[in-house]
Amino acid sequence: MSVTGLIGFVGLIVPHILRRLLGADARVLMPASLLLGGAALVLCDLISRASFRFLSTEPPVGAVTALIGGPLFLILLRRRAV
């Protein structure tokens, strides 16, 4: 996290979610991770810009990514441990 920041967190979450949905075949998983990871970052940027527009400011995209990705990562860890 110290090198890539919080946006790199998407690269950890998205493939794990897709692996549960699509299976472990890398021929399917790699392109799907690329597309869904990009879409997730665009969605987080949109949320970041829209949610604070009335204050004429915006939080960093990494903060929104962490707020969404943190709980998802904990859910993935909990399901795997059980």
From TrEMBL:
It comes from Labilithrix luteola. InterPro entries: ABC_BtuC-like (IPR037294), ABC_transptr_permease_BtuC (IPR000522). Belongs to the binding-protein-dependent transport system permease family. FecCD subfamily. Keywords: Cell membrane, Membrane, Transmembrane, Transmembrane helix, Transport. Signal peptide: none annotated. Pfam families: FecCD (PF01032). GO terms for cellular component: plasma membrane. The chain crosses the membrane at residues 6-22, 29-48, 60-77. The keyword Transmembrane helix applies. This is Vitamin B12 ABC transporter, permease component BtuC. It comes from the Bacteria. It is found in: Cell membrane. Coiled coil: none annotated. One of its GO terms (molecular function) is transmembrane transporter activity. It is a multi-pass membrane protein.
